[in-house]
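Researcher: I'd like a structural prediction for the single chain below. Treat it as a standalone chain; there are no partners to consider.
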Amino acid sequence: MAQLNVSLPADLQRYVDGRVSDAGFADSDDYVRALIERDQHRYADDVLRVRRLVQEGIDSGVIDREPDDILDDIIADIRAADD
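Model: Treating it as a single chain, here is the predicted structure.
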């Protein structure tokens, strides 16, 4: 298994220690792994969502909106889903 060393300021280290204790993680390594896995799943979900939206656009035919406006809407939808 690869190793990753991360330096944290004291306030973040206290936060991590609290999360490890409160959420029942075995140690900070498990907590960081869980965060990375959650991010990995969110990223994969975002990619699928964008692919579906692109396909929906292709399937819908020609539209009269500017591409930048459409992209802004897609980005706003992704950000709203993350909240």
